[in-house]
Amino acid sequence: MMVLLELLIVVVIFVGLVMKRVDLGVSILASSLLLGLIFGMPPVEILRSFWLGTIQLPTINLVAIILLILLLGNLLGETGNLRNIAAALEQLIPYRKVTLVLPAAFIGLLPMPGGAMLSAPMVEEGGRRMNLSAEMKTFINYWFRHLWEYCWPLYPGLILGAAILEVPITRMMAAQWPITLVAIGAGTLLGILRLPRQVSTDPCGKNPVAGLRFLAASVWPIVLVLALVLATQLPMVVALGLAIVASILVARMGWSRLWPLLRKSLSWRTALVLVAVMVFKRVLDGSGAIDAIPMAFEELGVPPVLLLVLAPFAVGILTGVNQAYVGVSFPMLVPLMGGPNPDFSLVMLAYVSGFVGVLLSPVHLCLLLTKGYYGARYPGVYRYLIPAAVMVQLGAFALLAARAYF
To answer: Fewer Cβ atoms within 10 Å of its own Cβ: the N or the C terminal residue of the chain?
Structure first.
């Protein structure tokens, strides 16, 4: 019982720091220090955990991958590749209600902070023709931008989760891809099917060959990364590096254009968050709390599934940050997921529950930016968003039950 109260104190203080707008990385490091002190770790051991958590190879690899993903995204934005995707889709698909959502979905393949703003103007153009409300445009852009967070190997939350669990990211992808289908279904029922059916009369809608060429010319760096990782088994950091170099060479980008992108992408705050999460995991391991968690819940009779849902959801909705709910809750939940050999159905449930919280968080950057761009109001947006999020959460429960039964 005492171990749970001590962990609760750490989580409450962490959330309080975040709500006071203390930097996320600093908040996690402060929570790591508090965790070590509460659990009686000698100061020298705490410092050693901080040092080893920072310099260990998995931490360095994780930081490199995430920063390179941000750089690739900014490169594609600078070269116009992301904007060109929408034009290519218009050439391929004549139905405006479909092309309205596809730009957000395609841009969602490449993670970046506030990435929903890249597709917002494209959704605005189609939404204006259909006389859609600001709230519906916000939902369409926001929801379809986040379809791939459950299984796409470029997303920081998935990469971080795999690093914490010390498992191949492909195992998490295999367990969680059905949830993306559920999210597509929820967006279709609550978004696409409510849109007026319109057929494009533009000539560009009659040239699929040109559309395919245009799409290939725009999306090839992302395809290259996936091909190198999945087909040749190259490390993610190497695949990203090759795709970035190729993009720079193809665009003939000089140093004057590249330097601002490097400054924008190589964010010390992002690196600090990732390092802090790995330090937190190291301190949690060294404190002995990991071994005590299952016993404490067994004594209380609390169903582990309940904690797997509530802990990530609470951190997700309070912070609106994917890395926060994975980084803070996953290290503590490892024993409930099966320890060194996790049950990926339980991992899926925890991941989805946390991300549902992130989607519903009023402080989620993408939601704030999209709502502001369209001038929407929260009540109207949540009228669509809450039912869609509930469908995704129910889908996670259904998938868990199906795997347990079969």
So the answer is: C
Nearest to 104 by CA among 83, 81, 130: 83
Under DSSP, the state recorded for 195 is: S
Domains: count for the chain: 1
CA dihedral 249, 218, 169, 185 (to 10 degrees): 170
Put simply, whether the predicted model's pTM sits higher than 0.90 gets the answer: no
Residue 373 to residues 120, 124, 133, 270, 386, Cα–Cα distance (Å): 8, 9, 13, 25, 20
| Model pLDDT for residues 142-155, shown as the tens digit of each residue | 999 999 999 998 88
Q: Mind spelling out the 3-state secondary structure of the chain?
A: CHHHHHHHHHHHHHHHHHHCCCCHHHHHHHHHHHHHHHCCCCHHHHHHHHHHHHHCHHHHHHHHHHHHHHHHHHHHHHHCHHHHHHHHHHHHCCEHHHHCCHHHHHHCCCCCCCCHHHHHHHHHHHHHHCCCCHHHHHHHHHHHHCHHHHCCCCCHHHHHHHHHHCCCHHHHHHHHHHHHHHHHHHHHHHCHHHCCCCECCCHHHHCHHHHHHHHHHHHHHHHHHHHHHHCCCCCHHHHHHHHHHHHHHHHCCCHHHHHHHHHHHCCHHHHHHHHHHHHHHHHHHHHCHHHHHHHHHHHHCCCHHHHHHHHHHHHHHHHCCHHHHHHHHHHHHHHHHCCCCCCHHHHHHHHHHHHHHHHHCCCCHHHHHHHHHHCCCHHHHHHHHHHHHHHHHHHHHHHHHHHHHC
Rounded to whole angstroms, how far apart are CA atoms 82 and 212? 15
Q: How confident is the model at residue 279 (pLDDT cuts 50, 70, 90)?
A: confident
Contact 348, 175 (CB under 8 A): yes
**Segment 312-328, tens digit of pLDDT:** 888 788 677 787 788 88
Greater pLDDT, 218 or 115: 218
The torsion region of residue 166 among left (phi > 0), alpha (psi -120 to 50) and beta comes to left
Residues 16-60: tens digit of each pLDDT: 887 788 887 888 899 889 989 998 899 999 999 999 989 988 888
* Domain with 397 in it: 2-405
Contact, 4 vs 296, CB < 8 A?
Answer: yes
